[in-house]
Amino acid sequence: MTDSQNPSPNQMHLAAFVTAGPGRPGGWRYPGSEPGWLSASYYQHIGRVLEQGKFDLMFFADILSVPDRLGGSMDSQLRYGALGSLRLDPTPVLSSIATVTEHLGLAATVSTSYLEPFPVARSFATVDHLSDGRAAWNVVTSFQDSEARNFGSDRHIDRDKRYDRADEFLEVACKLWDSWEDDALVMDPSVPLFADPDRVHPIDHKGEWFDVRGPLNVSRPPQGYPVIIQAGASPKGRDFAARWSDVIFCSHASLDSAREFYRDIKDRATRHGRRPEDVKILPMATPIVGPTTEAAREAERRLADLVPPLAGLSTLAYHLDIDLSTLPLDEPLPDVDVPGVQGHYKEVVEMTRREGLTLRELGKRYGGRTEGAFIGTAAEVADSMEQWFTEGACDGFTVGAVHTPGAFEDFVRQVVPELQRRGVFRRDYEGRTLRDNLGLDRPRAGTWRDRRYGGNVPR
């Protein structure tokens, strides 16, 4: 990618947050929601819509169980179509979308806690080749006992050990992607020489968690490494994200908390020897767009009415890894020690204290998962997005949909042109690969070493 093709630093990036299933307990019931979750054409349509809107990428969230954290039962998840009631394996879904798009980045969530580096590195290298350089991996460290029990363990790995394993997992994956030099695949029938044996190398990794000989049996990905996405809110999670991630997904209940997170991550990236601009921070925004402010607010109220409190609390219990069924529904969420996702806890505590929500009210709000700053007319939603972007809170947004595919269609048809008119979002793609469009360099072989040890950051 030439300098003239680089995305302007004055233009935001947009990702789409998608689930291969209903995802939201109110959204699947919302008028206009289409229940095509078991059809490839459903996701292909969403991919086309997002590419029409010049989105950088779409990424699929994933979990590895039907959660049972609320009262030890799966009932609230399955009954209300909540977080983990139905989830297709996202990686095959990406491959189907790749066949009908040309520029849109394609990200799948894959856990480092219960899988192995070789098949994961191979899978993402394959998607990167088949999509001509558009693959991304949302790295997660699973944290639920219900997930562990699907992989032969009674309990999940504790938080610090999860990140230690993830750290080594990423190191092994990068070694495997580097095991083929860029020019190793010759394919010259006249010699004959298919692949140059002198340019394909075993990795001979022996570590605390993994023993992998290598090499990978897929040549080096077009992007060098697929784009790495991560969300980390605890101190160790933030440090992991700042070291490894190209894109960081996060959620915030206010502009102030988003600014603090943005500054902290950029500082951590610098301490790891990275350039701050090489880590793109894209907080969650779930817009509701209407022809008038009141129409958008009415849509918000209608959506909230469709969310049973227990459905939202079931999802929150999963995220926090706490059985919320033991707490009074008509009192605020108390201060608790959270073994799960720190970022979601900070978000709901801030929301609870600011608005005086009871746990029952919090369940409805959390099940709907909308942010008040992004509800209104297209111009009002664009105002909020532009403010967050220009005031040092983000490099763009991860856009969620309260119902699919209609909310994505509304956003692309109404908000994207408004952002383009203001000059804060692209009118066309700058390059071919996802790294091109994000303004990220293609990593040379061995870049993982710089990320791991850059800036002399202690382990």
Automatic annotation (TrEMBL):
Family stated for the protein in its record: Belongs to the NtaA/SnaA/DszA monooxygenase family.
Matches recorded under Pfam families: Bac_luciferase
Entry annotated with the keyword Cell wall biogenesis/degradation: no
InterPro entries, per the entry: Diverse_substr_monoxygenases, Luciferase-like_dom, Luciferase-like_sf, NTA_MOA
Annotated Luciferase-like domain residues: 33-388
Protein's recorded name: LLM class flavin-dependent oxidoreductase
Annotated Gene3D superfamilies: Luciferase-like domain (3.20.20.30)
Superkingdom assignment: Bacteria
The entry's keywords: Flavoprotein, FMN, Monooxygenase, Oxidoreductase
CDD domains reported for this sequence: Nitrilotriacetate_monoxgenase (cd01095)
